């Protein structure tokens, strides 16, 4: 273990990134999940929605506790938190998807444009923790990248909703860790040449995921 700590401080960036991911997996991941779950439970407790009573309704709703909501007093839906998980080889298409989602102003989106997650697993874990839905942009390169595996598996352990997005034409995982992440989920295919159609399908999947909360 001391060797891992020493290597994580290496001037060799590639070696340092590998050892930081190992260190996170072995020493930090379990506690990180526990702490993030605790923080989320506390947030839910403190930010519980306030029930708005409609005084025009029958008095029994107050006596029996049969509460009814005044829909006109409900706020509009808050922007949902998304994270795009991708590998740098697929950045061009993933960046287009990110910018299109950003234009809608319906989502707060975590997009690691500088690829910091590959060398900083703590930053990755924080991004997953802040997001309720993870868009997994998968390809053969994504499958081969250990950083992608750590990110996707951490999202699954955090019980985040996962929407698979194909960004390499005809690529279909046939086994291993990526298939276990995608499982039997329907993927959104951005490789067929019709971006608007694929984007609309993605929005449909996101809306379904939000409504399932």
UniProtKB/TrEMBL annotation:
Q: Name one GO biological process term.
A: signal transduction
Highest taxon above the source species = Eukaryota
Cited PANTHER family: ARMADILLO-TYPE FOLD-RELATED, TIR DOMAIN-CONTAINING PROTEIN
One Pfam match, given by its short name, reads: TIR_2
Name of the protein in question: TIR domain-containing protein
Boundaries of each TIR domain copy?
Answer: 83-201
């Amino acid at each position: 273990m001391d060797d891992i700590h020493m290597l994580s401080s290496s001037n060799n960036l590639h070696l340092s990134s590998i050892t930081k991911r190992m260190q996170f997996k072995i020493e930090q991941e379990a506690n990180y999940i526990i702490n993030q779950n605790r923080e989320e439970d506390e947030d839910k407790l403190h930010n519980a929605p306030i029930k708005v009573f409609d005084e025009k309704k029958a008095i029994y709703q107050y006596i029996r506790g049969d509460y009814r909501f005044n829909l006109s007093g409900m706020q509009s839906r808050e922007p949902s938190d998304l994270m795009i998980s991708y590998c740098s080889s697929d950045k061009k298409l993933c960046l287009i998807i990110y910018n299109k989602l950003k234009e809608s102003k319906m989502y707060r989106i975590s997009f690691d444009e500088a690829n910091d997650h590959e060398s900083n697993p703590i930053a990755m874990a924080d991004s997953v923790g802040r997001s309720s839905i993870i868009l997994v942009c998968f390809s053969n390169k994504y499958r081969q990248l250990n950083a992608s595996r750590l990110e996707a598996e951490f999202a699954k352990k955090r019980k985040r909703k996962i929407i698979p997005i194909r960004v390499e034409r005809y690529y279909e995982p046939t086994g291993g860790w990526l298939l276990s992440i995608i499982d039997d989920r329907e993927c959104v295919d951005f490789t067929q040449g019709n971006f608007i159609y694929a984007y609309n399908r993605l929005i449909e999947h996101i809306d379904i995921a939000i409504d399932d909360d």
